[in-house]
Amino acid sequence: MITISILSVNTAKAKGVFVAIVDEADLSPINGNEINSIRLKDKIFKTTCTYEAGIEYLKKSAIEQGANLVKITGHKKPDGFNNCHRFDAIYYKVEHPRTYEKEILWSEKRMLEWEDFRAEKQPHAYNAVALTYCGIQYSVKALTSLYGSKTNYVVKCIFYPEKSWATTDSAQRTDDVLKHEQKHFDLCEVYARRLYKELTNTKINAFNMDDANAVYQRIMKEYEERQYLYDEETHNTTNYQDVQKKWDEDIARELAELNEYAIRN
Predict the structure, then answer these.
(1) Which secondary structure element, helix H or strand E, spans residue 22, and what is its range?
(2) For an engineered disulfide with 14, which of 60, 125, 178, 205 has Cβ 3.0 to 4.6 Å away?
(3) Would residue 247 be called left, alpha or beta, if left means φ above 0 and alpha means ψ between -120 and 50 degrees?
């Protein structure tokens, strides 16, 4: 096992190479070659050891060792003594790594592909070409230690391949339709950032935890209404050249405006 405490890898080598992340709760068998095991830890109160930073490091480290799948075997969240996310993981080399993903964490480096839509088309879907099933997970934990008190927020924007589907008609699997579905996922990330922003600004602590759920419910209501409006106005990409373009620009602008909330502990 390799134990690493400094996040330093060759980012040039990692560019353009896909690595699947398999969560520790996923007990599905992995058919491939085990390359190595790793323990990722970091110094107390270091500011770069967020969940996202850890996952990105594991991906790049796996590529350096010739692997294309990371199986998380242990995950310790920040607590009263350590402000970092820490991981145990095993690196594998497998065929078709994308098929192992049950959840896809949003990343500007990881665009959706047609093979990510693995559910069967629903009978009531009529003429729809695809459906993107994504959502926002969050948790809030008030931490107390010898160093004082801190509230830790974890907010994730996740795409679910096993619940997302697409037509099997290759003629309808166009780049424009796939980009339309990607924007559903991007819009989900917009509201994940809004949720993180509001949670931090509300200053949730051990005495007002109910306020966190109220914030979440309000943001989710706005999110669901916006997703519905997106499909209504774009007519599921049939009006791509004008309305879709405006939505693309609006979503990109909103992501940029909320960029400081992209890295979430």
Answers:
(1) strand 20-22
(2) 60
(3) alpha
